[in-house]
Design brief:
Layout: H1 10-19, H2 31-39, E1 43-48, E2 51-56, E3 64-69, H3 74-83, H4 93-101, E4 110-115, H5 125-140, H6 143-149, E5 158-159
Antiparallel strand pairs: 1-2, 1-5, 2-3, 3-4
Helix pairs in contact: 1-5, 2-5
């Protein structure tokens, strides 16, 4: 059964595939709990270039998850930079497809995954919850995928704002309508 809350864009689907790889042949019993943690706002994520830090409120514990992602390759960066000219350009599934068709899919490549819980598999429910939460955040704002995959240019860190909806006064009508 498909879960429409996570991975409904091509950009977010990559993070769902980290939790639900296609090569797995049997159901993972941790996935429903991980999805519930992500849906229930039990995951807080801080993102900087190449690194994700997450804390997951799970019962009486609050494990910390650290994920490191390899930076985006230069060809992908060049393709996206050429398409993202403008101040409010939105990353679309077509842009994702353009990169993929040229042989450079902007898929996150994990270099390190750690959790402070006692599960030593690297695929504990907390790590899976962070994957789902990242998919949800990236579905809401695909530019976040680029923030994660961007080459690191320093030690700065920024907290991802848990914003699920956009208020109307935050939108500029000139971005959507033209006057003739």
């Amino acid at each position: 059964m498909a879960d429409d809350d996570f991975g409904y864009t091509a950009w977010g689907r990559d993070w769902v595939r980290l939790a639900q790889p296609l090569r797995v042949t049997r159901p993972d019993p941790r996935l429903p709990r991980a999805r519930a943690l992500a849906k229930g706002a039990k995951v807080e994520v801080t993102i900087c270039a190449g690194r994700i830090r997450g804390t997951v409120e799970h019962g009486r514990t609050t494990p910390e998850v650290r994920i490191e992602v390899a930076p985006m390759s230069s060809p992908v960066l060049n393709i996206l930079t050429a398409q993202l000219r403008g101040t409010r350009t939105i990353l679309t599934d077509e842009m994702y497809s353009a990169c993929t068709e040229r042989g450079h899919p902007p898929v996150p490549t994990l270099t390190r995954v750690e959790c402070t819980c006692s599960d030593s598999t690297g695929r504990c429910v907390h790590v899976l919850a962070v994957y789902y939460d990242m998919a949800r955040r990236i579905d809401d704002d695909p530019r976040l995928a680029l923030d994660v995959l961007a080459p690191s240019d320093g030690p700065h860190e920024s907290a991802a704002v848990p914003q699920r909806w956009t208020t109307l006064d935050a939108l500029d009508p000139a971005d959507y309508f033209t006057v003739r």
